[in-house]
Design a protein that fits this description.
Distance between the termini: 42 Å
Number of helices: 7
Oligomer: single chain
Number of strands: 0
Largest sheet: none
């Protein structure tokens, strides 16, 4: 008889999956209105919006490489993931009080820096220990994919409201 999904997946997969869900909803809600905020409220031009987004996304891509290597070296994945999620969450307040495109750039940079820090350690932390079966590892990855799909749907619904 098949065990319920809750019993088959490690606890870390569930915890990190839901933390990721809420952090990504937070990020998507800000990202969806940020270009409009920059142009209409702060008076930025489209080149500035593009530069801010380009710097932010390239920061996340570069930091992921370093955080993965650091995670392998320190073997402290949980702490790195907590720092990444914490930084991204704390910097959200800066968006609300930003009075210039420079503040938005700083906030986006810090947000994506946090994402870069957390992604590689989070993905490694969700994998079960080496002595468990490959099937458990695949289930953990499928669960992560399903939560990412839920994040995308939730972000779109939240933007529509």
């Amino acid at each position: 008889m098949l065990k319920p999904l809750r019993q088959r997946l490690p606890r870390n997969v569930w915890i990190l999956g839901f933390v990721s869900l809420f952090a990504d909803i937070n990020s998507k809600m800000v990202q969806s209105v940020l270009p409009l905020f920059l142009v209409s409220v702060l008076g930025a031009n489209l080149l500035t919006v593009g530069l801010i987004e380009g710097i932010a996304e390239s920061t996340a891509a570069v930091v992921k490489i370093g955080s993965g290597a650091l995670s392998d070296y320190w073997q402290r994945r949980k702490e790195l993931a907590i720092v990444g999620y914490g930084l991204s969450t704390l910097v959200t307040v800066v968006f609300a009080v930003a009075s210039s495109p420079a503040w938005v750039l700083l906030a986006r940079f810090a947000d994506r820096f946090g994402k870069g820090i957390r992604v590689a350690p989070r993905n490694l932390e969700q994998l079960p220990p080496a002595q468990t079966s490959l099937a458990n590892a695949l289930r953990a990855l499928v669960n992560e994919f399903q939560l990412e799909q839920l994040i995308a749907l939730t972000g779109d619904v939240t933007k529509a409201l």
